[in-house]
Amino acid sequence: MSALSADAPASNRVDPKVLRTAMVLVVGALAVVFDTTIVSVALHRLATSLHVPVSTIQWVTTGYMLALGVAVPLSTWALARFGGKRVWMFALTVFLAGSIGSSLAWDAGSLIGWRVVQGLGGGLMLPVMTTLIMQAAGGRALGRTMAWVALPALLGPILGPLAGGAIITNLSWRFMFWVNVPFCVAGLILAGLCLADDSPAATAARPRLDVRGLVLLAPGIATVVLGLSNAGSADGFAHPDVVAPLAVGVAFLVAFTLYALRRRDPLVDIRLLAARSVGSASSVLFLSGFALFGAMLLLPLYYQEVRGVSALTAGLMLVPQGVGTLLSRQIAGPLTDRVGARSIAVVGFVVVAGATVPFCFADATTDGRLLALWLLLRGAGLGAVTMPVMTAAYVGLDRSRIAHSSVLTRTAQQIGGSFGTAVLAVVLERSVSGSGTGSTVSGFHVAFWWASAFSLVATALCVWLPGRKQVLAAAAAAASPTPPVAAEAADADPR
Questions:
Q1: CA–CA separation, 488 vs 72, rounded Å?
Q2: How far is CA 422 from each of CA 83, 222, 226, 297, rounded to the nearest angstrom?
Q3: CA pair distance 126, 135, nearest whole angstrom
Q4: How many Å from the N-terminal Cα to the C-terminal Cα in the chain?
Q5: Number of other CB atoms surrounding residue 285 within 10 Å
Q6: Dihedral over alpha carbons 141, 132, 226, 298 (to 10 degrees)
Q7: What is the pLDDT of residues 344-398, one digit of tens each?
Q8: Which percentage of the chain shows pLDDT scores above 70?
Q9: Which residue of 333, 348, 389, 461 could cross-link 143, Cys pair, CB 3.0 to 4.6 Å?
């Protein structure tokens, strides 16, 4: 143990080359994060401007999410076939084209179509960004490195709602999509100049696309997300529009699992879930969707429907939560490198649960300054959850497995977020419709209690996350001249 401890400080230093790679990729990734958070506050305005019902314009978000789910599994093959730099620049170009097309859309159908193009680009960008940064880190200083990976996701909740609210209040909705263009252009220029060319050698064997795996996995993810997105109504999960897609999606995912277990080189290596680091992180990320993403549905709705504020004001009121998350990033990353993800994530979930409780009693007259303080604390808890858990997914992995871990954890987070949002939307809808007088306020109280309870339940899964000894062993192995290549080496000690 003393040897491990002595090696830890050196292995915990982030290489300047890794920081440069991270900063280049973060610039482009900000376009995806801002786009998602900006559009989320503009659906009612889009429905009005394009003269279609909200149920139709909802496909602006749903179509994007379905395309995202289809593209994410392709990243493992694309990285091996073309190299990270080429895939990143291609995905960024596709997202740029989708953004410009969305801004020029002539009706709801064309807007939805261009949003699908955006989703295809964004679905490649997010796992590719994570994979390239974590591969550059080489197993060292994973917590500090993940702090850079998570930066777009942390800035999005702060700046996205503000930008979206300001645009919707003062400008045409088309300007929402032009916000992405400077980030995409700057990201392409920086990537072309700064990223190393990692294309496979001309004589190297080029991996074939696992078409059968893609045909099973991509529709499976997409239809599960579709079913969950249809669940936010009074009918809830009992409606055929929910049951049918979920049944089809689960069947496809089960078929892919059976197929991938028999194949030597599947599109996504689900056997990696047997590695403690990946399996535990994926499970916690899935369940965290209930506690984290579901509550993100409730908070802006609470401010707009209970307190009667505008979209811009609601965005301003949510800024303290984003600030808390951004601040905790400075602590959670380095601390994860020293003590592991387990204890930090447990504390984070407890803080999120506790800071959500005041909203279980809040009404239209509750002091907004007090709620802002609770949101600041809640944001700090969110950062203490997401940073260590995302880092845990890469502890002890060799370079070839990082891309597969990125896809597995990204998919778990996406489906868990959709599931959590759907559950809390159903809880809110039924609570509001069945509460009689004052139903809106009491309905939100019930939904916030559910969100808080999910946070506490998630702490149970955190026990499985890597602890201090495992993190130090993996860091020492990464610093060794001949590091082990198997993830199982990091899974030997259960402590």
A1: 25
A2: 37, 15, 11, 9
A3: 14
A4: 13
A5: 28
A6: 40
A7: 888 889 999 999 999 999 988 899 899 999 999 998 888 888 778 877 777 777 7
A8: 81
A9: 333
Q: Are 316 and 159 in contact (CB under 8 A)?
A: no
Confidence (pLDDT) at 483: 47
Q: What is the pLDDT of residues 15-48, one digit of tens each?
A: 677 778 878 888 888 888 777 777 766 766 787 7
Give the helix/strand (H/E) hosting 374: helix 368-392
From 153, 190, 186, 195, select the one nearest 32 (Cα to Cα). 153
> Of how many residues is the chain composed?
495
Q: How many CB atoms lie within 10 A of CB 366?
A: 14
- pLDDT of 242 > 80? The answer is yes
Q: Is the pTM of this model over 0.85?
A: no
Cβ contact 420:292 at 8 Å: yes
pLDDT score at 2? 36
* Per-residue pLDDT at 487 exceeds 80: no
Helices and strands per DSSP (H, E), number in the chain = 23, 0
Q: Which residue has the higher pLDDT, 429 or 81?
A: 81
Cα 442 to Cα 1: distance, rounded to the nearest angstrom: 53
Q: Which distant-in-sequence residues (6+ apart) come within 8 Å of 297 by Cβ? A: 421, 424, 425
The per-residue b/e assignment along 445-476, b for 16 or more CB within 10 angstroms, e otherwise, is bbbbbbbbebbeebbebbebbbbbebbbbbbb
Residue type, 125: M
Helices (H), 393-489: 399-433, 439-461, 468-479
Q: What is the dihedral of CA 482, 486, 491, 493, to 10 degrees?
A: -40
Write the Ramachandran bin of 340: left for phi over 0, alpha for psi from -120 to 50, otherwise beta: left
Cβ neighbours for 254, distance < 8 A, ≥ 6 positions apart = none
Ranking 271-285, 286-300, 461-475 by mean pLDDT, the lowest is: 461-475
What is the greatest pairwise CA distance in the chain?
73
DSSP letters, 166-217, are HHHHHS-TTHHHHTHHHHHHHHHHHHHHHS---PPPTTSPPPPP-HHHHHHH
% residues pLDDT > 90 (the chain): 14
The per-residue pLDDT for 397 is 76
Instruction: Quote the pLDDT of residue 401.
Output: 80
Tokens of 490: 């990091």
